[in-house]
Structures are given as C-alpha cells and as structure tokens.
Amino acid sequence: MHKVPLETVKVLVIGPGGREHAIVRSLLADPNVSEVHAAPGNAGISKLVPTHAINGNDPDAVAALATRLDVDLVVVGPEAPLAAGVSDAVRDAGIPVFGPSKAAAQLEASKAFAKQVMAEAGVPTAMALVAANADEAAAALDTFGAPYVVKDDGLAAGKGVVVTNDRNDALAHAQSCFDAGGTVVIEEFLDGPEVSVFVLCDGRNTVALSPAQDFKRIYDNDEGPNTGGMGAYTPLDWAPDGLVQEVIDRIAQPTVDEMARRGTPFVGVLFVGLALTKRGTRVIEFNVRFGDPETQAVLARLKTPLGSLLLSAAKGELDQAEELRWSKDTAVAVVVASENYPDTPRTGDRIRGLKKVDELDGVHVIHAGTKLDDEGKVVSAGGRVLAVVALGSDLVEARERAYDGVELVQLEGAQFRTDIAGKAARGEIKVSAAVAAQAGSASEEEA
C-alpha cells in the first residue's frame, strides 16, 4: 500500500487541456500538495508547474514517469488515456490513481455498454437501440421518430452525436460511423434543460460536486455543430433543491454498485449528463472524467482542498474525506475557440492580451489549445484555445466580468458564444413539475 502523510502529496496530472489547467491550479492551492507535475501540459500549465513531453495516452510511458518522479497520486484528465488503460498501468506500479480502469472506462468508451449498465442498475435514461448497418439504423430512426439522435458508439471527443429533424442527415451520420468500422446508438430525443453533475467515486462511495450547465453547440442560441463545449456556469439557481441527492440515489450510487458487482470498480469522476425532461430526470450519457469546460467553472468555486479529496477517492477512502465547501460566488467560463473550429481549426496564431485579462477583478484565464513558440510566445495549438473564467456575486456580475475578459483576448479569427448563461441570468430556464417532484422526494428522504 502506497501510504503517504497528507502534508506532502506530490501529484502528476495527465492531459493537455483546459480541464487539466484548472485541476493544476486547484491542486496548487491545496496546502497538502507539495509539488505538481503535468504531462504533456500546455502553455498555461507550463508557467505553473514542470511539464513532461510524453505521450499521455501511452500507459507504460505514464507509469514510468510517475515512478521516476516518485509521485503519490496520478490524476488522469482526458478520456483517451483512460480508455487506453493508463490508470491500470499506474496502479500496477503501486501508485494511487484518480481515474477509472480501462474496463470501467467503457462507461464512456462504449455508449452501448453504458446503456447495458444503466439497465442493470435501474438508472433512468433515454430508450435506445444499437444499429450495426443502414437497415437497422433506418428501423431504429423510425421507431423513435424526429428529432433523431444518433451517437457514435465509441469515443468522439464530444462530437460524435448528431441531433437533427432531417432523417437523411441522421442516416448519413450513422453511415459514416459504419464506414469507419463502428456501430451507432439511436435514442429517443430528451427535451428540457441539460445539467452536468460530476460525482467523485472511490469504487464504493460517491460525492457529488456542484451541478453546472455547459453549451455544446458552436453558435449562439444552440445553433451549428456540436463541439467539446463553448462555455459553462455554476451553480444552477433554477435547479430543484433535491437534484444532487436524486442523482446520487437514483443514478450514481446504483451505477457504482453495479460496476463493483461486475468486478470492475469505478474510481474517478462519473460525469452524469442529464436532461430534466417533462417525464423527469433522465441520463443523456456518462463520461468517466471531469467535463471540459464545466471543470473550469466548478473548481473555481470549490473551497475544499482538491488534492486531499482526489487522493481519498484514489485510495478508497472517500467516506473519510472532509465535507465539501463552496464559495458563495457564481462562476462563468466562456471558451475562445480558433477559426474553423470544430472542423479544421486554424492554429499557430499569436494570442495577446492574456495578462490584461488576469488583472481584472475575479477573472482568470485557463489555457486549453495553447503552446509556446520558438520565441516563448503563446500561440494557438488547438480548436478550443482558452477559457475566460470569472467569479461574481451573481450570474449577471460573473457574466459581465467573463465577457469583459473575452474582449481583451486578441486572437485572429477567434470565435466565442455571446450567450453563455444568458437565459439563466434572465430567469428564463424552467424545470418540469415531474423533475421538481422527483427532486423533492429525494430531498425529503435525505432529511
């Protein structure tokens, strides 16, 4: 057993994006964390901690680095290394890791597998059919009717889902997945506002973080293609009081119990993507890692030391972790993406104005697709380049601060949404009576 006194936790964070930058920032704020390393990191992360240029998706390379650095905890950010078995290799090296095994990561790596687990665990979700060819896809589409929801069964970095009223478009997306050797999951459409809840799991116990809402489409008013996420905010003042308890009782805990029963205990973040529909709360999908960009907003409000929390989860001791404490502030994150994202993003452009953003009250920049060029200047290196994260006394103030920051970012061809958290700030999000009633009963049972 890799035992370590709490006051000297040395952590290695795997991943190159905004989620990892936010995690690194929070770890550095934990008095129990003595040292943080990242691999491969990005331009923002490299200004804070030592970075290591390894392939983060290579289990042996990550395990070797963790062993060489003699770290006490490895935190795996993205889904690809988890699906590749990075956590297994690190665990085999005797080092605690926050992130599920390859077997448990199937909850995200295969939509069909996730549906099977949800069915076994009695988790409320959309009805779905798996299709392996055009005839099966057509039959499934006709079973559920429009709007059509077609999901690539495998990992697609948040972009493998098509929701459309055009049957031909739905069939075309399915065919592109078949042509690539995959299968698709076709589902009934879930109406109502969407919510992201991150649940920390240690294989047996579950602790939910504050719910957030993210914005998947590239353009304002939820138009255009899906992206990895263009912004997020938290907390959700419009969500019913008992929602988090309902997520634990009806979704997260039954799923964790089912995974343990199967002999593949789930350790890490179970990211529960929900739709609050007319018929009640339903799971849209599971992910097996912190969401990006929701993490940037959620961690900005978390007061509980993150390193101790993640180490408790990695060691199966989440039931002994201290209770979560949150800032009273509201957090808004707005993503600045590069030209042509999400298709073929333009990269290599200088990014200016970042110091000015960081000087604003309650505002900071989280780097995602950035790197340092030969002259040490920050340039774009991906589709979603950065997020401007702001804290404010309420949603209106947090939004104003975030967009003041976005205006200072200079990146040629940059695109961002102007309506992140806009509806919520105007009080325009409504929850169905069924959702409110379910959450209310969860709340009463807890009391």
Poorly predicted runs of 5 or more residues: none
Strands in their spatial order, largest beta sheet: 11-14-17-21-18
Give the overall average pLDDT. Answer: 93
Outline the biggest β-sheet.
Answer: 5 strands, antiparallel
Strand content bin: 15-25%
Task: Quickly count the helices.
Answer: 16
Give the overall silhouette.
Answer: globular
According to CATH, what is the class of the domain at 6-102? Alpha Beta
The level of helicity is 25-40%
What does the oligomeric state look like here?
A: single chain
Radius of gyration: 21 Å
* End-to-end distance: 37 Å
From the 3D structure, determine the CATH topology of the domain at 6-102: Rossmann fold
Known CATH architecture of the domain at 6-102: 3-Layer(aba) Sandwich
- Structural category: alpha+beta
* Overall strand count: 21
Protein name: Phosphoribosylamine--glycine ligase
Pfam families: GARS_A, GARS_C, GARS_N
GO molecular function, one term: metal ion binding
Organism: Arthrobacter globiformis (strain ATCC 8010 / DSM 20124 / JCM 1332 / NBRC 12137 / NCIMB 8907 / NRRL B-2979 / 168)
Summarize the structure.
By secondary structure, this protein is of the alpha+beta class. The chain contains 16 helices and 21 strands.
